[in-house]
Write a structure and sequence with these properties.
The protein has about 140 residues and is of the alpha+beta class. About 15% of the residues lie in helices and about 40% in strands. The protein contains 2 helices and 6 strands, in the order αββαββββ. A 6-stranded antiparallel beta sheet has the order 1-2-4-5-6-3, covered by helices on one side.
């Protein structure tokens, strides 16, 4: 298990864009499972939507990507790199995520070589699928 402070030692994201609170399972370069506690205090709820707060789907995808990023950046050859999107495939949104929900985020690597990867992702709330699909990414050197 990784705490929020330990996550910040691995990935560069910070408030308000750090979207995972803890990692409950991780196998570097293979898979990760994280938790996001969704609260009404999230800045995006001010405008999405007043009177009917729903977590934007794009931020659920970002939280899933950050979960995958933890597992990818834990590998020695990726330390100091950035994980960036190269594609999103077959993403489906099945349940609205609202304040009070605990979002379980799962990322399983399908392929990862030469700095390129593809992960299967799943976001659930109370064991109900909120979002699922695949994310493609590249590990880049931020200094180049």
């Amino acid at each position: 298990m990784l705490t929020n402070a330990e996550i910040q030692n691995i990935i560069p994201h910070r408030y308000p864009f750090l979207l995972i609170d803890k990692v409950i399972e991780v196998e570097p370069g293979k898979k990760a499972v994280a938790i996001k506690n969704v609260t009404i205090n999230e800045p995006f709820f001010q405008g999405h939507f007043p009177g009917n707060p729903i977590m934007p789907g794009v931020l659920i995808v970002e939280a899933l990507a950050q979960t995958a990023c933890v597992a990818g950046l834990m590998l020695e050859e990726n330390k100091g790199k950035l994980g960036v999107f190269t594609g999103i495939e077959s993403m489906k949104f099945r349940k609205q995520v609202v304040p009070g929900d605990t979002l379980k985020l799962e990322a399983e690597f399908l392929m990862f070589k030469m700095g390129m990867g593809k992960v299967k992702v799943l976001a659930t709330v109370d064991e109900q699928v909120a979002a699922e699909g695949q994310i493609k990414f590249a590990m880049i050197d931020p200094n180049k």
